[in-house]
Amino acid sequence: MLAAIEVSTRISSVALLDLITGEELAEVTLPGDWESSATLIPAMEALFQEKGITAQDLAAVAVSTGPGSFTGIRVGLATAEGLCMPSNLLAFGVSTLDGLAENLRAGEMQGEALCLVDAQRGECFVGHYEIGKDDFKEIETPQIAGFEKLASLLKGRAWVVGPGALKYEKEIREGLGTQGMFAFTALHQPRAMSIARLAYRQWQAGLRPALDQLKPLYLRPPAVDEKQ
After folding, report:
1. Residues carrying CATH 3.30.420.40, the chain
2. CA distance 61 to 152
3. What is the C-alpha separation between 6 and 52, in angstroms, rounded?
4. pLDDT of 169 strictly over 80
5. Per-residue pLDDT tens for 78-109?
6. With the C-alpha atoms ordered 115, 121, 122, 123, is the resulting torsion angle positive or negative?
7. Rounded CA gap, 181 and 8, in Å?
8. Neighbouring residues of 221: CB distance < 8 A, sequence distance ≥ 6
9. Which numeric CATH code is attached to 97-187?
10. According to the CATH classification, is domain 2-95+190-225 in 3.30.420.40?
11. DSSP letter for each residue of 30-57
12. Are strands 158-161 and 180-182 parallel, antiparallel or unpaired?
């Protein structure tokens, strides 16, 4: 059994996936106005109870590693660590941007794509992908860019998805014009089940990551670490 955590943006979620069959068992989205640090474990325990399992039935945990909210990423990693340590479970770290790309793939939106998470200051964390039927690949490594620079990244028409796309929708639509195709509203929020599916594909490929391999993907240092 694999438990997945997505807590890198304002709306958090948890999910369960059967590692043997690949069946997507359950997913719960937490209200956006709740503190994830206080509700993440109770939400996970509620999923366990619903499916008649306990933490001892887990073989692996998957967690979004960012980029996104520094606090959310820390909470997610700490929760994953707490679940993994007692039984030395496998620990899959999955980029939040990859999770958004998986949203598109699962929604059958193929082609070039920009996955955007709000980075504040009029900027986004940007993932640039080619979405295929069964998988996706990075066109460029993740970066930080202002919405006015997005058009220069594109080769042609591209899907635009993510909470950063929603926050700067007006400016992005103006900047990209007909090059930008906004995804369905339901696909813009990072999802724990997308993180679970990506971890499952890594599992199928033979990857068995240990907890000490779990690292955050910040792209930008936390504000307290930046020089004024």
Report:
1. 2-95+190-225, 97-187
2. 37
3. 22
4. yes
5. 999 999 999 999 999 999 999 999 999 999 99
6. negative
7. 24
8. none
9. 3.30.420.40
10. yes
11. PPTTS-HHHHHHHHHHHHHHHHT--GGG
12. parallel
- What pLDDT does 225 receive? 45
Token pair for 61: 């945990």
What is the Cα–Cα distance from 25 to 12, expressed in whole angstroms? 18
Distance of CA 184 to the CA centre of its chain: 17
The neighbouring-strand residues paired with 203 are: none
- What is the tens place of the pLDDT at every residue in 194-210? 999 999 999 999 999 99
Band of pLDDT at residue 1, cut at 50, 70 and 90: very high
- Give me 163's structure tokens: 């909470």
Q: Report yes or no on whether pTM surpasses 0.90.
A: yes
| Structural contact between residues 151 and 176, judged by C-beta atoms closer than 8 angstroms | yes
**Both tokens assigned to 62:** 């998957």
Beta bridge partners of 130: 112, 137
- 64, 95 contact by CB (below 8 A): yes
Polymer length of the chain: 228
Segment 40-49 shows an average pLDDT of 89
